[in-house]
Amino acid sequence: MTSQHGNRYLRFAALGDSTTVGIGDPVPDEHGRAVNRQRGSWRGWAKLLADALATSYDVSFCNLAISGATTAVVREEQLADAVAHRPDIASLLVGVNDTLRSTWDPVRVRDDLHHVAGSLHAIGATLVTVRFHDHGEVLGLPRFLRRALTARIDVLNAAYDELHDQYGGLRLDLAGRPELFQRASWSIDRFHPSEAGHRALARAFGELLRDEGYDFTLPCLEPAGGFPPSWRRDMAWMVNEGAPWIGRRARDLGPWAARKAVTVLA
S-S: 22 plus which of 34, 42, 90, 231, CB 3.0-4.6 Å? Predict the structure, then answer.
C-alpha cells in the first residue's frame, strides 16, 4: 500500500475518549432533530477532519474512541483494531479522564501511552497528538481543585512530550489556540467542545497535516448541519448527563485535592 502524499488512498484511525467520539457536536436526523444518545449520532473533530481529507483522498476512516476512556481503555480496547486498520494517520487524544480519577497512576498512564504510540509508530502511522490546555481555567474550578488538576495535566503533558520526542509525528498545543478558550468553543459543561470547538480542532489538525504535505481542503469553521446554542438543549444535557458526570469527578478528584491542600499547609 502506498499512501501519504502521492497516493490518493488514505487510512485514518482515531483513538481516544469522548472528545474524539464527538460529544458536544450532535448531528440532525432526517427530521432535523438533534440525536445524541444513539451510536453514531455524534460528529466531532475527527469526522470533520476525515471528511475534509476526503476532498482529495479516498479515505478509510475508523473512529475507535470511547466516551470516558482512560489510557488503559485505549490500550486494551482500541489499539488492536487500530493496528488492524493499518492507518497512515493515527490520532491519540486521551489521558484527561485519568487525571480526574482517584485511581490516577502517572506511571501506568505513561506506560500505556508509550505502548500505544510505539505500536502505531511501528506500523508506519503518522502520530497525531496534543499538549493539553489548563482544563481548570476553562471549567472555572475552585482554586484548590484547579491546582490539583493542573499538576496532573502537567504530568500528562510531559508524557506526551516524550512521545513526540521518541516517535515524532504531529502535535497540537491546545494552550496555544486562543479560539479554544472562547466560551462559544465549549458545551455547557465546559469540558466537551461545542460544534464550534470541534470545528476549530479539526481545522487546527488539518493545518498541521497540510504543513506535512497533505493536499486537501481544510475543514470549514462555519457551523453547518449541527445545532446553534440552545439553553433548553444545554439544560437538558446538564440535568441528564452533565450533573451526574460532574458529581462523579468531584467524588474522585475532590478528596485527593483536599488532602493535597492540607499537606501543603501543614
Answer: 42
